[in-house]
Design goal:
Elements (H helix, E strand, L loop, with lengths): L8 H32 L14 H28 L2 H33 L7 H22 L3 H28 L20 H45 L1
Helix pairs in contact: 1-6, 2-3, 2-5, 2-6, 3-4, 3-6, 4-5
């Protein structure tokens, strides 16, 4: 079976309908265990106190804000190359979710930064690139809404997804590119010396898994809605032409 078979809207609806209950169930389990364990059953961080426990929400949100745009980049590229409608509709479906994650990452970062840095916001390279990424999310959604022809909208938004990937990349690696600013480095890394302490590590991984699954469940659900809306629009246009 080829992966491209699921570019067929009917097969995608069927497959996503089977996956959604399982993904949703795993989402609830991972989020419940990870957040309850992390927020209520881990010790107070030595330097930052209890405010550091926001890491179980802020870090997964920030990771998914970037990775959501990465998913949009891949699916938009598939549209530009293969012209599969399901792929570009998946990108369209992911945009509001990614924008929400980005906004919440900025808000939770401000809550964390206020007592830690003495200010909720600084024009740090990573924070600035996150703010620009949020603007790209809003611009992407506005472009879809502004263009009536769906294929033309898909083409232009896909190009915008290519351009916005630069800021998604900068949001991820800004701390490595510029050795300045208040933002800390990665909380999780292949280099064990950069990871959080072991007592915080497992609940953080569970929280991240929960947010990844939440994103996947929401994208599947919203993509189903987008596919059905496009099919309904096509039927209405066909009936209008035959009338």
């Amino acid at each position: 079976m080829s992966l491209w078979e699921f570019a067929n809207p009917v097969k995608f609806i069927r497959l996503s309908g089977r996956l959604l209950p399982w993904v949703s169930g795993l989402t609830v389990i991972c989020l419940a265990v990870g957040l309850i364990w992390g927020l209520f059953f881990t010790p107070e961080e030595a330097r930052q106190g209890h405010i550091a426990k926001i890491i179980y929400i802020h870090v997964p949100l920030a990771m998914m804000a970037i990775n959501a745009w990465g998913m949009m980049f891949v699916t938009s590229l598939i549209w530009l190359i293969r012209r599969h409608h399901v792929s570009v509709l998946a990108a369209k479906a992911a945009a509001p979710i990614g924008a929400t994650f980005t906004l919440l990452a900025i808000i939770t970062g401000a809550i964390w930064g206020a007592p830690t840095w003495g200010t909720p916001w600084v024009w740090d390279p990573r924070l600035t690139s996150f703010a620009v990424l949020l603007v790209f999310y809003f611009g992407y959604m506005a472009l879809w809404a502004a263009i009536e022809d769906p294929d033309k909208a898909a083409d232009l938004t896909s190009v915008l997804a290519m351009v916005g990937t630069v800021f998604a990349f900068l949001s991820r690696y800004a701390v490595n590119f510029w050795n300045q600013g208040l933002h800390q480095g990665a909380s999780l890394s292949l280099d064990k010396e950069e990871n959080v302490a072991d007592v915080f590590y497992i609940p953080l991984l569970l929280s991240i898994a929960g947010f990844v699954l939440l994103f996947l469940a929401l994208v599947l659900l919203r993509t189903q809605t987008e596919v059905r809306a496009r099919r309904l629009r096509a039927l209405m246009l066909r009936e209008g032409a035959n009338a």
